User: What shape does this take?
Amino acid sequence: MKAPVEFYFDFSSPYGYLAAHRVEALGAELGRDILWRPILLGVAFKATGQSPLIAQPLRGPYHLHDLKRTARRLGLPFQLPEGFPLPTMAAARAFYWAEAQSPAAAKKLALALYDACFAEGINITKGETVAEIAGKAGFDADAILAAIADPAIKERLRAETDGAVARGVFGSPFFIVDGEPFWGNDRLADLRDWIKSGGW
Assistant: This one.
């Protein structure tokens, strides 16, 4: 079996939102499963000394312009939620709970959370908000709330984040396929060509 494409992202990443709407089609085209892995970028930022792109002088206004432009090109609605950038522990924990039930369902939840955040401009920081969005997407809202507070789920997210940073993941979206890393929504074409050609 061909190894999956590992898709690392933070629910506070607008470029991750754009990639989340593209990556499954790419996987289907290439015959590769996509392994979704939400992490907390704040941990990576501490390791690299970086800050969210939108908050950086000069780069921030450009990236906001680019995000809106890229969303238009992809036909996706886009708006930043109030309070952006957001802490997204609750959303990531909810994902890992859902994945334990069904990886396919977890991807559905991830897209619902991403769409709420960047298509509707909803701040998804609070567990109650995450549970409400999950409930509308067909999940058990009470179970989601319980999972967000579950020490085992908290540890799972911590381990996934630390493991990602140890592998060199420093941004979102970040892809690893057959050991080769690609950073950014704009690297999906390179990722496709790498897999099709066997690398260069």
